[in-house]
Design the sequence.
């Protein structure tokens, strides 16, 4: 079985729709939830997710977490940049723990904090949360292999330089190259098209992460379409 | 690469719109080797690749050093520098997606020369926005690009909104590389053409790696081991293209990147995210940089005035796998003169930086009587810079 | 060679006083092969010999001809033309008899460039009398010779009696090759130095034969047969050096010597004894000539303005073993432009004459669908002639 | 035995001295006499011989020939340029015949009249004179081989471009190369030094021709010295 990791920005496009998306997507095939914490500094996110952060920048994070905590039935991760928490990481982790989050995913941990990643990793663990590590194709093989063993639940591999922009790449080549280095589960994300999904799964990925596509569907066609997309993706994964 | 957090548009998305798809694919791939398509390979042969690896016997004699010195001579290509290696590849991949016209900017002119000839080889049109002050001071570069069929415009020009706005404010604006690049990108976008990138991006270094791969093979053919590898650094593509194959294959014991003391990026630069280009149109990259707003002094080595160091090279320098050196113009001129008298080849002032480091190293080896082998990349000739050498000699002596 | 019957001095005896002895020995030997001394051979390697033999795939494609086209690229030497081949040899043999200073004249500058660098390579001094009008119009040539350590004087100069007399009559005299040569010879005689000869004499062709010998070997290495051999003719040394080894070894079926229609020596020249030089200081030689007093029009191909055809080549033409062609400047410019766009290399305007004949031949072979192999000598690059190309394009279009 | 061919300009430096030189040199070792006919057009002669022509340009050739005819005991050749006789060759040859000349040597025959040399050669023969052919290193092998068979008495090989000027050459290399092509006797001349003599003889020449050296001796030290030189040369030849 291949994993479907479903991303949604916290409270997007509004609290109710957000909660409905999270609630229903768990029935339609999402295996893991990934919740984006709004920030002005979304270094590795593309324009769609960035603008979603802007639209919800007035929400009360703790309120949203509380509401969310009642409906989550699948492992749930918070996606947040370490740079935003350098001074309050402990408080943030404690709040996550309190509201039933399974773990945290910090996309800048390995890229911008490579020298201290173990320290932060231990810190997350001490707060009894899973630390899911994010890596990109620019991470050297040796480091990628090492951190993949540290990573909890799975290793998150972002195959494009940013989310949601279909930079032409060769997903199969990228995944085939890292697969033998990773003994952990390997989840692939960042701008995946349907074709990409097929090819990364064939290349040995254990699952995929989708985000921008859900937000675009909500924006253009509404919640139902985005939920249909969850179903559709589940179907694709089950067929491969 | 990443986008700035507060950008009003995505630079990464812009790449998507102006670069050939295969170029982007190569930029973001992790393949260790990428096959050169046959048609492109044919063009590499046509321009005289493999370029010669030459024993610098004259320089060895002049220095009376026990070291052996070899140089890979990229100036032997028709356009006189390594730039053609990536210009050809980018033109080819643009043509492959049905584009018949490429656009770029040029400062000193080497890059524009390479692009206009590459376009000519694939029967494509080319448009070059040349910084106005260079356009006026380097007429031969313009003549050469024209002979290759390139359309060369002094930038700021009236071909773009961007240029028109600047000219409205100051009709005598001397131009800058940032302005020329903005014009080129606007022109490419508006006319649905492709924009070619001269350096810094990984993909440019990838294309330049033909230099190092050939050098490795040539050394192997003559049974020679490289101990010390030296190259100059503008954006980093000639140094990277030359040295990475050696570094990756763990051949050699010392790698030296050489910059200009007047553009002190190695000694004074910070390692941080910065725009890859002075116009701020390309994504942010994490590199050693003087800041994309840095205004370089007018040194003769136009190609070394770039504010940063390619991200991969920045890491290698940070990790101490590659050493760096910086020299001032007087030292460079003296090194160039020595080389000219000893080898006959007039080096591009940029490449003379590598020569300066080679001389220093060779004399150091002489002091210790060490018989090591130095290999350096002579990235271009300076025949079109002779008037520069003349002014240099008048200014520096 | 012979002396004029009414000469007030013996030109042959003058040779004896100004040329290195070994040069004279080689001039008058009948050895088929002369061994290159090791020290000289080392210098040939240093300057990048063997120069590349390149398949002109770009030109073939542009002409869509079934013919294969190769060119031997003498422009790949550091000084940019074949001239270095004899300059090195003559300097070496001068040094060998204890001379530390060589002298010559130069017009367009290629020869002076070759001599000043050759002298530098052997740690000798060099003095170059450069025709004043070229000295003023080609500043880059002077800069380059200076970088090589050459002393360059505008001729007529005040360094010789000959120059002083001319300046007394006309202080603004533009100079001529004959005057420059007279000054160089006087200067060499007065200071007991050695004078170097750029072309025409058999010994210069002998030294240039390294071109043809290398080409034969290179063709053999790639299993290719030369059918048609083409080169341009100034004095004849590049053509002779390139083609004689083939002719002598009976390789090839057609040899074409190309001159300028504006200097119609092949079509209008007489076969007779004439001075080898316009100053009348060298012996008479029997050759096809327009007369040593012939005043050539100011064509861009400065190297083709010589009034005669080397004696050996003259015989070969008389005997119909070598064919000739003449083209006008418009035809030359068009050929050069085609070549530049197809191959990237800017040919010296002189060498572009060979290209014009190659194009004609390749199109003829296309008409008859003949798959022959054309090999030509690209005797020099034209990077320092770019402003000439610009004026040409303005004048001829 | 090696041949010594002694050259002297007709009537030089004056009739008496000339006759004395010719007379005595035959006793001192000259095998063949070569008499230069004054001309303004001495194409292949160096400055010494040229100036000797100038000094005697007022002599009456026929008178000199007549005086000479009484004392010659060795085969005697006239050296004269064909160019000077294009219109009166027959008369000139007849005069030579009348005054006991054995033959003629025309240095420009092969160089400047190569296309018609057989015609002129036959013409000389019809006048019952020997035609000694002159060749130089610039004559192609094929032609050299061919004309060497036509040449009477010997083939005259001038190894320098002009007489009397010691252009540095390699006499041994020059002679060794032509020797196998020449079945006739091979006499070598043009600017020979004593060293040259040794080396051309060792290289296979059958003899040498000397001229400028005699004139220089007469000019500088007088007739006796020039006759001593004949003796000296004879000695050198006999030793080799």
Sequence:
């Amino acid at each position: 079985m291949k994993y479907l990791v479903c991303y949604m920005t916290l409270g997007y496009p509004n609290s109710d729709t957000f909660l409905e998306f999270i609630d229903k997507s768990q029935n339609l095939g999402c295996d893991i939830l990934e919740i984006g914490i709004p920030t002005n500094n979304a270094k590795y996110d593309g324009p769609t997710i960035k603008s979603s952060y802007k639209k919800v920048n007035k929400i009360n994070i703790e309120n949203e977490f509380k509401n969310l905590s009642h409906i989550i039935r699948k492992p749930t991760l918070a996606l947040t940049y370490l740079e935003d928490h350098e001074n309050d990481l402990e408080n943030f982790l404690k709040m996550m723990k309190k509201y039933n989050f399974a773990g945290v995913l910090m996309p800048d941990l390995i890229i911008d904090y490579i020298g201290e990643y173990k320290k932060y990793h231990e810190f997350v663990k001490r707060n009894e949360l899973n630390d899911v590590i994010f890596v990109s194709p620019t991470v050297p093989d040796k480091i990628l292999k090492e951190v993949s063993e540290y990573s909890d639940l799975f290793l998150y591999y972002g195959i494009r330089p940013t989310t949601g922009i279909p930079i032409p790449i060769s997903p199969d080549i990228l995944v085939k190259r890292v697969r033998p280095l990773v003994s952990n589960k390997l989840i692939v994300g960042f701008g995946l098209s349907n074709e990409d999904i097929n090819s990364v799964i064939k290349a040995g990925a254990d699952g995929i992460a989708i985000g921008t596509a859900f937000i675009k569907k909500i924006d253009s066609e509404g919640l139902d379409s985005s939920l249909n997309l969850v179903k559709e993706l589940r179907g694709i994964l089950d067929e491969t | 690469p990443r986008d700035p957090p507060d950008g009003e548009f995505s630079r990464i998305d812009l790449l998507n719109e102006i670069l050939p798809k295969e170029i982007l694919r190569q930029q973001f791939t992790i393949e260790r080797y990428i096959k050169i398509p046959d048609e492109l390979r044919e063009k590499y042969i046509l321009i005289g690749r493999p370029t010669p690896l030459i024993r610098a016997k004259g320089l060895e004699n002049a220095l009376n050093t026990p070291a052996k010195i070899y140089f890979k001579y990229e100036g032997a290509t028709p356009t006189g520098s390594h730039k053609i290696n990536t210009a050809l590849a980018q033109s080819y991949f643009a043509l492959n997606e049905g584009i018949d016209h490429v656009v770029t900017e040029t400062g000193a002119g080497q890059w524009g020369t390479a692009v206009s000839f590459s376009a000519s080889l694939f029967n494509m049109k080319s448009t070059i926005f040349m910084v106005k002050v260079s356009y006026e001071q380097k007429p031969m570069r313009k003549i050469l690009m024209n002979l290759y069929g390139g359309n060369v415009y002094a930038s700021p020009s009236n071909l773009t909104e961007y240029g028109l706005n600047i000219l409205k404010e100051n009709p005598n604006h001397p131009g800058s590389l940032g302005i020329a690049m903005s014009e080129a990108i606007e022109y490419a976008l508006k006319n649905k053409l492709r924009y070619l990138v001269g350096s810094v991006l990984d993909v440019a270094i990838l294309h330049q790696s033909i230099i190092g791969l050939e050098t490795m093979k040539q050394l192997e053919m003559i049974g020679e081991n490289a101990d010390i590898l030296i190259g100059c650094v503008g954006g980093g593509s000639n140094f990277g293209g030359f040295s990475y194959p050696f570094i990756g294959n763990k051949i050699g014991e010392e790698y030296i990147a050489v910059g200009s003391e007047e553009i002190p990026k190695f000694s004074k630069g910070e390692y941080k995210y910065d725009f890859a280009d002075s116009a701020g149109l390309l994504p942010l990259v994490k590199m050693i940089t003087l800041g994309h707003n840095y205004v370089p002094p007018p040194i003769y080595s136009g190609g070394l005035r770039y504010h940063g160091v390619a991200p991969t090279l920045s890491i290698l320098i940070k990790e101490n796998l590659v050493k760096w050196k910086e020299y001032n113009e007087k030292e460079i001129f003296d090194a160039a003169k020595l080389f000219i008298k000893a080898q006959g080849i007039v080096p591009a002032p940029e490449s003379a930086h590598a020569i300066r480091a080679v001389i220093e190293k060779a004399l150091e080896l002489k002091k210790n009587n060490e018989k090591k082998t130095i290999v350096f990349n002579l990235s271009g000739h300076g025949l079109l810079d002779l008037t520069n050498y003349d002014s240099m000699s008048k200014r520096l002596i």
Observations:
- Chains B and D do not touch (no CB pair under 8 Å).
- The first helix of chain B runs from residue 11 to 18.
- The CA atoms of residues 142 and 364 of chain B lie 42 Å apart.
